[in-house]
Amino acid sequence: MDSKKIAIVAVIVVAIVAVAAAALLLNKGGKSIPEEVNEYGLVYGNADGDTKLDQTDIDIVEAVIKDPTLLSKYPLADTNYDGKVDESDKTMLQRMINKEKMTVKVLQFDEEDKTSVVDSNYPLNKVVVTGGTNARVAISVLDLHKFMVGNATNKYISPVLDKDLYDLRESGKIAILNTSPTDDDRTALAAVDFEAMISEISGMSGFGSQTFRDLYSQKGASFLQFSFDNTKESLQAIATLGILVGSETSAQEYIDFSLGVEQLVKDKEGSLFGTKTVMNVVMSNSVSGRTSDYYKATISAGGNNLADFDTTTKKFPDGSDNTWLLDAKYNPQYMFHISSTVFGSTPTASTASAITKNFSETAAFKDGHYYLMNGTMPLPVRIAYMAQIMYGDSFDDGWNVSVLQSYLDKFTNNPGVDVKNYKVLWTTEELKDI
Q: Any idea what DSSP says for residue 56?
């Protein structure tokens, strides 16, 4: 990895700095520039790393021109990514602020957290988006349906949570693609005019195959991959896309919403934060490990997740040792089973039966603390539901429902929809009766 990428990584791995926080200022060349560097919009030219391109970025570029040693602190100031910062970077940044058509540089991470710098058309006006629940959140938050000419998503798309995308797909105005792309999908894409393929890393790897990359190259389209697996990565993805499509304000609103939920959880739980033991289950019998985004969500909700295995999941029963989850070190107070179904729909009897069969001997199930949660809800909403269940006395009654309602009101085109009419969580006793 070259020195510039090392500097970039050093910036990215710092703790998240809320954009709304009051930043300390450095005075360089008679101008005050922020001392703190955010880590949201990873587009070169967005020198302060926040959610927008503005005069502050210009000021930083000017400061780096006068003092090149500052580039290690503000690597995104190298707008044209040529290893130095000069007047050409300032000129390019001003053109970006003016929303002139051009090619810009974007910092990307892959599934192994390796970095790369890729080209992107800018600003984006025609995009294809592929991804599941978390990618659909980005579509709603950033109004990506306005720019969309093609889409691939899973079968759990909702006319409530995903209204704009749902309506767009139903209208027949965009190319509908398979989540595991085929030659037919390649043919369909070849007939579509688009400037970028925006793909969720998880579950949509087929769109990153060389065959499809060759197609994007032939069409002059950018290929952008994003991870939405945890709060940090999802907010980086949304902020970066917000800059590329011109939805900066919406990106900032969602960041404030997400960080606000997590901060309130910490404030309300106080010294209790991290004291309740918890584990996650996905699919029918896969317990989430430390590399899973579900594991990270339980931590954000204030749980002490007992998983100590560095894999995404570990099966129970696993075919050999059918009692490992019953060991004291793996037998938590709370278990959250995350299952994706269409928003508001009831889980199947077979799902409930499998849960009862596999997990009825766990302490959480016996104590009535095993919950099935609809996994299509946005990450901050899932965190709110888990926090309210584990630390009920710390929150006002119905706070978790109000978070879901707030998301629906702020980030979907669904005025007047009452989320209380849509069941999204089932208790142990309710699971027994399905």
A: H
pLDDT at residue number 347: 87
pTM over 0.85: yes
Q: What's the sign of the alpha-carbon dihedral 414, 228, 352, 277?
A: negative
**3-state SS assignment for residue 222:** strand
Strands 196-200 and 286-288: unpaired
**Mean pLDDT value across residues 295-312:** 96
The pLDDT value recorded for residue 31 is 67
Q: Give pLDDT tens digits for 99-115.
A: 999 999 999 987 677 88
Q: Which domains does the chain have, with CATH numbers?
A: 3-102 (no CATH), 123-246 (3.40.50.1980), 270-433 (3.40.50.1980)
Question: How many Cα atoms occupy the beta-carbon half-sphere of 398 within 13 Å?
Answer: 5
The phi, psi pair for 275, rounded to 5°, reads -100, -20
CA-to-CA distance for 78 and 71, rounded, in angstroms? 8
The tokens 């269409």 sit on which residue?
342
**pLDDT confidence bin for 290, thresholds 50/70/90:** very high
Q: Decide: 311 and 289 in contact? Cβ < 8 Å.
A: yes
Q: Count CA atoms closer than 13 A to 271's CA, side-chain side.
A: 0
Rounded alpha-carbon distances, angstroms, from residue 9 to 81, 83, 115, 127, 343 = 15, 15, 8, 28, 38
Q: How many helices (H) and strands (E) does the chain have?
A: 15, 16
Among 31-40, 168-177, 217-226, 333-342, the minimum mean pLDDT is found in: 31-40
DSSP state of 43: B
Amino acid 43: pLDDT = 98
8 pLDDT higher than 60: no
The residue ranges of DSSP E strands in 303-351, in sequence order, are 303-305, 313-315, 334-339
Phi first, then psi, for residue 105 (nearest 5°) are: -105, 135
Looking at residue 27, what is its pLDDT? Answer: 58
